[in-house]
Amino acid sequence: MRKALVALAAIALLGCGGDSTGVNASAVGTWNLQTVNGSALPYTAVFVANPLYKLEILSDVFVVRSDGSYTETFTSRETNGATVTTTAEDDTGTWVQNNAALTVTASDGTPSSGAISGNTATINTQGLVLVYRRQ
Asked: How do residues 71-102 score in pLDDT, each as one tens digit?
């Protein structure tokens, strides 16, 4: 599940060519996840009532570099019965931008696409709508 969420997040921060804030803004910069499917963070990705299990996305930050690479820090919280574990994970990947088209490849080789407008990146992937905001 974590790999899927990391890959989803990787998609979201990357965008389209141009300057850093216009409609076709460059994806280069630092991006913070704001919402998933319209819900603010923390976002509950998985919930099972009995036995209690919950996986929440607490934060996701991408640093997108002009050399075509990115790094990501993703924080999640798992509740398994009475045990609560918060985990921070790092990932890396690459991205290619061509006008309004973007291809992002996560470290596990999963390719995805996305778009930005100004300081907002919105990604529709695997049934999720991820919205990031440029720092």
From this structure: 999 999 999 999 999 999 999 999 887 776 77
Cα(60)–Cα(5) distance, integer angstroms: 10
| Two tokens, residue 59 | 């934060």
Residue with tokens 């973007």: 102
| pLDDT given for residue 8 in this prediction | 44
Asked if 53 and 83 count as a contact pair (C-beta separation under 8 A), the reply is no
* pTM listed for this prediction: 0.78
Between strands 29-36 and 39-40, the pairing is antiparallel
d(CA 18, CA 38): 27
The answer to whether the beta carbons of residues 93 and 10 sit under 8 Å apart is yes
Using only C-alpha atoms, the chain has a radius of gyration, in whole angstroms, of 15
Rounded CA separation 122/90 (Å): 21
